[in-house]
Amino acid sequence: MNRIEQVKEMLEVSPHNNFLRHALALEYIKDGNDTGARQLFEAVLTDSPEYVGTYYHLGKLLERLGETTLAITWYEKGMKEAKQAGNRHAYNELQTAYEDLIY
Fold first, then answer.
1. Residue 60's closest CA among 24, 26, 103?
2. What pLDDT digit, counting tens, does each position of 5-50 carry?
3. Are 94 and 75 spatial neighbours (Cβ–Cβ below 8 Å)?
4. Which of 8, 51, 65, 85 is most buried, judging by how many CB atoms fall within 10 Å of its CB?
5. Domain residues for 78?
6. What is the CATH number of the domain that holds 22?
């Protein structure tokens, strides 16, 4: 059983587990399934906007897909959430990615 199948199996038991959904999205990216990854990242952030690690990965995916404006929007949302959570590390990563796009 490959990693995608393993994570999907775990998600059957816990379908709204953000860690597992995020992990599956990362596996999808490795497998070339950008659409599946994007859907999962967006679902995580819709359900749990405080799950700040996902903003960075969604933004990077959108950048790679040429959706720069949307990536900037997600980075801004992520910086706001990271700041509210006091997560300086995530804030700094998002800010760097954001600034790389706008400057």
1. 26
2. 999 999 999 999 999 999 999 999 999 999 999 999 999 999 999 9
3. yes
4. 51
5. 3-102
6. 1.25.40.10
